[in-house]
Write a structure and sequence with these properties.
Oligomer: single chain
Distance between the termini: 49 Å
Strand order of the largest sheet: 10-11-9-12-15-8-16
Number of helices: 22
Strand content: 15-25%
Largest sheet: 7 strands, parallel
Bound molecules: adenosine-5'-diphosphate, zinc ion
Shape: globular
Number of strands: 31
Length: 740
């Protein structure tokens, strides 16, 4: 505390830089510690802010306002977390206040509202004047101004104000301060989970033991140390995490485990609970805001040793954090892409550095970013090359869709249908995977598999039905959709896709006796639906499970002996330079669902493009060969991880305004770039998802071999006010993952 003036620095969760200085009145001094939530006057409102430091400046120019209240019993954040948030905001070119807003659990932000207060005069005059104030207001003497306007009209409110029958006062509803009585695990953990003293850890395989030993050594040494655990599917990475966490707990420190949102299955929670008992915290968006707030508080209070969380958990106020784990680190869901984009995987590394903690990234199919970091010696690579149960990785049979389809629409080939039948006859389980992801308007020849690509960007062109042309969404290149395939002159050009529901119907017709279920975002609106289906599948009450990405992630089902991949290329031709990497990852992960307990697992991978390296190498489980092949062109074109990208996207209701603004940004950027050969500007061009939820989208992509040139460029654009426009949303996305 600034002893003479009682001044503190307060961060406000608004898109502003901050922090702001306030004075603490004497009666609140006792509670005015770093991390506390405070109520302060800010721009004619009273808002919640967070104490991020004691103001050391002896003299602050201008008027300093007083803190209004410090409502909670306990602190909210930590000084360390604020440093981290500020670091992240700077890295992502976002105001610190906005990053703070993103970091905090919902419900922690408070803002006052104007209330109408009945004056003594008003009470008196009212009775005589024959006006009709609502009786409730007359009784209580206060009402939200808005409600009063609804009830008697705004003209009457203005009149009452002028006559001083009422006054307007900014009031804030009291923030929730009490924790729910019931401890979170009992509320939220899956039924049947044992919150006990912790089961005994199983014996590790030699590979696992070696990996754990290396991590334990780093933990004992203290300080930042990043690892990449590169372990094939079913190699027992989770067991490695559990052991490393135990080591950490034994040393009196805490661990944070990030998992992709979708993989946050009850199964994983059960496994952690069985091992670590009640000292486990769980944090993800499936919780209600209240639950998240409670769990945040519980974690802040230091009652848990290990937290499992989705990406937003990267901001949890965990003190004495010694170990961060990012499971399935390649998963694109770690990247938040809305108005406050950040990548939780990269932030885990940053937080580890900042707090001097070990970081473990784990995957069977590492992101190229992490793999290159390992090659460059920035991350220590640890391999788990074999499956725990000793079984081989499943055999993958390629089926060429060009020659094996009966018609242009169905994706169930005779070969796949046969394999499903054989598996069902043996009373074993089948998974049918369709990568749909809602965007599949690439153009491809069904005779030879030719895909139309941009000559400038090497990404697939998007087919636009109405204009009947093919366009590149990065650079704006376009060409008329040809009637014949330029490679083989066939007329069988295919635009569009196929949905899981149709596949389910086809399967039901073919196998009327089989118990078939579908797992995708439509069939699992609610969490319980997802859990229910997964549970029944595990209990073998389902014979065929069809689905999208959801069935790929980390689930451990021992009973699957056939995985059918309907069209391995669907994602190969997304207009994204990571399309091949994503496809390889997905195919490897899907294939990894089978043969987990025995050698009997089989995968049928259907594709138009059996010779494509992503397909070939996924079929032979050859990550490194694939990496070597696919990284050549990326390096040549300076795409990540060999270069850096910032995406600027303009969104709005008026197509004209969006386009105009994008063009304006483009010309400003080209002017600023003048004479700097390090920067490449792609666009402006309409986004591939040109219109989303009624809003139009245009984008620009900035690219440079090193990080700084494009950062400086975007900063200049921000300073010039180019990236702000009333009624338009302009998002700066550093290290974008979703380019669509
Ligand atoms: P991954 O995450 O690498 O795909 P998991 O950690 O889920 O693999 O392990 C695959 C299966 O092997 C799981 O059923 C797990 O319980 C089992 N397993 C892994 N390691 C061991 C071990 N050391 N002892 C006993 N079972 C193990
Ligand atoms: Zn062709
Ligand atoms: Zn292009």
């Amino acid at each position: 505390m600034n002893t003479t003036q009682n001044l503190i620095d307060v961060a406000i969760p608004l898109p502003l830089e901050g922090p702001f200085t306030y004075r603490v009145p004497d009666e609140l001094l006792e509670r005015a510690h770093t991390g506390r939530r405070v109520l302060v006057p800010f721009r004619n409102k009273i808002r919640a802010g967070f104490v991020v430091g004691i103001c050391e400046n002896g003299h602050i120019p201008g008027e300093i306002k007083d803190v209004v209240d410090i409502p909670d019993e306990k602190p909210y954040t930590t000084a360390q977390l604020w440093s981290f948030i500020r670091w992240a905001a700077n890295y992502y070119l976002i105001p610190a206040g906005l990053m703070l807003k993103t970091a905090l659990p919902p419900g922690s932000d408070r803002k006052s509202k104007p209330w109408a207060i009945l004056t003594p005069d008003g009470k008196h005059e009212f009775t005589r004047s024959g006006h009709t104030f609502p009786p409730k207001f007359m009784k209580s003497g206060s009402i939200l101004r808005h409600d009063l306007e609804v009830l008697i009209g705004s003209a009457a409110v203005e009149e009452a104000l002028a006559k001083e029958w009422i006054t307007i006062e900014e009031r804030i509803s009291r923030p929730r301060t009490t924790l729910k009585k019931k401890h979170i695990p009992e509320l939220l953990y899956p039924a049947g989970a044992q919150v006990g003293p912790g089961e005994r850890a199983p014996e590790l395989t030699p590979d696992q033991a070696r990996t754990v030993a290396r991590i334990a050594e780093a933990l004992a040494g203290g300080g930042f140390h990043p690892f990449l655990v590169f372990g094939v599917t079913g190699s027992g990475k989770t067991e490695v995490y559990l052991h490393a966490i135990q080591t950490m707990i034994d040393m009196g420190k805490r661990a944070l485990v990030l998992v992709p949102e979708i993989a946050l299955t009850p199964q994983l929670a059960r496994r952690f609970l069985r091992r670590f008992g009640g000292g486990v915290g769980i944090f993800h968006s499936g919780f209600t805001p209240g639950q998240r707030l409670d769990e945040w508080r519980r974690i802040q209070s230091g009652k848990v040793n290990v937290v499992i969380a989705a990406r937003s958990g990267i901001f949890l106020p965990i003190e004495n954090l010694g170990l961060l784990i990012v499971d399935e680190e390649h998963d694109p869901s770690y990247k938040q892409e809305d108005s406050c984009p950040y990548n939780a995987r990269d932030m885990a590394i940053a937080r580890g550095k900042l707090e001097g903690a070990c970081v473990v990234l784990g995957s069977a199919t590492p992101s190229f970013e992490s793999f290159v970091n390992a090659q460059r010696g920035k991350i220590t690579r640890l391999d788990l090359p074999s499956r725990y149960h000793g079984g081989a990785l499943p055999a993958v049979e390629l089926v060429d869709l060009k020659t094996n389809t009966k018609n242009n629409r169905s994706f169930l080939t005779p070969r796949l249908i046969n394999a499903v039948r054989e598996t069902l006859d043996k009373h074993e389980q089948v998974v049918i995977f369709l990568n749909r992801r809602g965007f599949d308007t690439f153009a491809q020849c069904r005779s030879c598999g030719h895909v139309f690509k941009c000559p400038n960007c090497d990404i697939s062109l998007t087919h636009h039905k109405r204009a009947r042309d093919l366009r590149c969404h990065l650079c704006g290149f376009s060409q008329a959709a040809p009637p014949l395939c330029p490679a083989c002159t066939s007329e069988r050009l295919f635009f569009g896709g196929v949905g899981t529901q149709k596949v389910e119907e086809e399967l039901s017709a073919l196998f009327p006796d089989a118990r078939i279920e579908r797992l995708d975002r439509d069939s699992t609106r609610k969490r319980e639906d997802l859990e229910g289906i997964l549970d029944r599948f595990r209990k073998k009450e389902i014979d065929i499970l069809t689905g999208t990405q959801m069935i790929v992630k980390g689930h451990d089902f021992p009973g699957i002996s056939l995985v059918g991949i309907l069209c391995g290329d669907l994602s190969l031709h997304f207009p994204d330079f990571r399309a091949a990497e994503r496809t390889f990852q997905m195919l490897t992960q899907v294939a990894g669902r089978t043969g987990r307990e025995s050698d009997s697992g089989k995968v049928i991978l259907q594709t138009f493009d059996p010779d494509h390296e992503a397909i070939q190498y996924a079929a032979s489980h050859a990550y490194e060969d694939f990496f070597r092949k696919d990284s050549v062109l990326r390096e040549e074109l300076s795409y990540p991880p060999y270069g850096h990208l910032i995406l600027v996207r303009v969104e709005g209701n008026s197509e004209k305004r969006v386009e105009d603004r994008a063009i304006k940004i483009g010309s400003a950027a080209r002017r600023l770039k003048e004479g700097n050969p390090d920067i490449m500007i792609l666009g402006p061009a309409p986004s591939p998802r040109k219109k989303m939820v009624g809003r139009f989208r245009w984008q620009l992509l900035f690219k440079s071999a090193t990080r700084n040139p494009i950062r400086l460029l975007v900063k200049s654009l921000q300073e010039e006010g180019c990236l702000k426009s009333h009624g338009l949303k302009i998002v700066v996305n550093v290290d974008p993952v979703d380019l669509m």
